[in-house]
């Protein structure tokens, strides 16, 4: 299991290659990368804040839940913090399992958790100022299936 919370950018392709190479016994690898997107048409940047130590523990705990629930060979979670421009990668999840169903389910579980429960705070910066991003009902609803 590799859980990282970092300010630095990462290369998703390189990360996936390293992850896949070490996924001993896996028959399936699933990955997802999230990018800063401009849903309002005027986003300049997004700033992500967190509490060091607390965040890593929370992400490790949820990754451990995924390992317990599904037959996983390995898990990778990378989440960035700091000021990020539109189009930059925010996060990456990768799961490796003997079979694809477990890899897909675990990856979706982790992504849903990261979107709604991980202890990150996001502020969107536009020409009109900066506002904290509120929780969305759809993100909360996505957790109900788990």
Question: Tags for this entry?
Answer:
146 residues; alpha+beta; Aldehyde Oxidoreductase, domain 3; four-stranded mixed sheet; four-stranded antiparallel sheet; 8 strands; 35% helix; globular
**Which consecutive residue ranges, at least 5 long each, have pLDDT under 50?**
none
CATH topology: Aldehyde Oxidoreductase, domain 3
From the spread of the alpha carbons, the general shape counts as: globular
Question: What is the domain tally?
Answer: 1
Q: What is the CATH homologous superfamily assignment?
A: Molybdopterin biosynthesis MoaE subunit
Fraction of residues in helix: 25-40%
Distance between the termini: 21 Å
How many strand elements?
Answer: 8
Number of helices: 4
Structural class assignment:
alpha+beta
Question: What portion of residues belong to β-strands?
Answer: 35-45%
Biggest sheet statistics: 4 strands, mixed
What topology, given as strand order, has the largest sheet? 1-4-6-2
């Amino acid at each position: 299991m590799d859980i990282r919370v970092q300010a630095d950018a990462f290369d998703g392709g390189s990360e996936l290659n390293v992850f896949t190479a070490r996924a001993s016994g896996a028959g399936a690898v699933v990955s997802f990368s999230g990018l800063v997107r401009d849903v309002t048409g005027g986003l300049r940047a997004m700033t992500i804040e967190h509490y060091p130590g607390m965040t890593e523990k929370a992400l490790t705990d949820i990754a451990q839940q995924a390992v317990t629930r599904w037959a996983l060979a390995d898990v990778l979670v990378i989440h960035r913090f700091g000021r990020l421009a539109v189009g930059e990668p925010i996060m990456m999840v990768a799961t490796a399992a003997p079979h694809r169903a477990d890899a897909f389910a675990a990856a979706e579980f982790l992504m849903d958790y990261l979107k709604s429960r991980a202890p990150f705070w996001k502020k969107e910066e536009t020409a009109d100022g900066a506002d904290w991003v509120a929780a969305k009902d759809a993100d909360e609803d996505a957790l109900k299936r788990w």
